[in-house]
Every structure is written in structure tokens, then in C-alpha cells.
Specification:
This protein is an alpha/beta fold. It folds into 2 domains: 160 residues, Rossmann fold (3-Layer(aba) Sandwich), CATH 3.40.50; 45 residues, no CATH class. Helices cover 41% and strands 15% of the residues. Strands 3-2-4-1-5-6 form a 6-stranded mixed β-sheet. Helix 2 links the parallel strand 2 and strand 3. Helix 1 packs across helix 2, helix 3 packs across helix 5 and helix 7 packs across helix 8. The radius of gyration is 17 Å and the shape is globular. The two termini are 33 Å apart.
Length: 220
Amino acid sequence: MSELILVRHAQASFGAENYDVLSDRGHRQSAWLGELLAGYGLRPDRLATGTMRRHTETLDGIRKAFGDLPETEEHAGFNEYDFSGLLNAHHGGQAPEDLHTDRRSHFRALRQTLVAWQNDEIADPPERFSAFVGRVEEARRVMCRPGADRVLAVTSGGPVAQIVGTALGMAPAARIELNLQVKNTAVTRFIFTERAFYLHSFNETPHLDPLDRIAQRTYS
């Protein structure tokens, strides 16, 4: 059996002009995760990210603890859905500013928007939900091809929840709740063969468990 380790990216820059850049805290989270994985001897022999900057910066932080690792594959299927674009589309083209900048308002509205998106109730979304499901599954399938014992992929909360939900046969609506609780640099692990794919653990952050790091846990 082989192992797939999915890592949600480190803390990005919520509310900033460019969300896709890791915060200083995000860089620390990435480095701590790399140290933990290396300390446990969890050296990947296949690596991947989505094409987003927050994915590649997170993997850069993880790499520092290992030295040489395989070249990174990029798969757009691991990219997050366009949550800002979905919020705007759900609100007729432009969502109120606070839905993009205020965390509480943002996540309350996002939950409602994702339900509408899954039900194909949003006119002209940046991406159809069915297309998101398809590209995430294709990225998972490509990364779980034969030839590697341990695969590590840095992605986002949406793809993590989608892959977990598929593995467990969960209804799409239930995957929203998974999506919104995935922590930055959380580890979700699967066991797979050519014919099987099983969830092993979800949303682990042992590198943030020490008392002096608990305040470093983040969700965006």
C-alpha cells in the first residue's frame, strides 16, 4: 500500500490586495510542518502542488527540513475554487465589501454560497461545481498512479474536503463543513492501492500542538 499526504497551504493574506501570498505566520507554519515530517521520517518520493503561489510557498517551507526531494509536479486540479468570484456571482456580480474583508461575514456568506454553487443555482459562476469535482479527482488520480510509496501534495481546503468526502461517500453539502474546518498546514492522510483509496486521518496539526504554538493555528 502507498500513502497520500495532503497538506492545506499555510496562512495566506486574508483581506489583503493579494491573498495568494503567505503571511509571516504562514511561513513559520510551513517550516514547522517540514521539521515534523522530517523528524518522523515521512520523506515523500513524489511531490505536487496546485499552481497557486500559496501552495508553492508552503512547499518551499516544508522542503527546507529535507534537503533534496523530488522535482515538484504542478496540477491545477489541486487549486482552490474561486471563492471571491463565487461570492460576487452569488450577489449579482459584486458582493458587499465586508464579505471579502471581514472574516465572520465572509465565512457566513461563503457557506451559503457554496450550497447554492453545489445546487447549480449561481448564474455564470467562475467554475461549475461539476468541473471542480472533476479536476480535483483527476489530480488525485494522477498523483496516486503507481511508482511511489509516499506522495505529498500541497493544496487548499476545498480540494481536501472534496477528496475526503469522495473517499467516505459523503453528500456534497456535508463536504462544506469539512472544507470550512480545515486548518492551515493541516495534514490529511490516505492509504491507496491501484484498486482502493481509504482515509487514514483528517486535519492533523501536531506541529502546532505545543503550548507556545497553539495560537499559531489558523483557518485562512
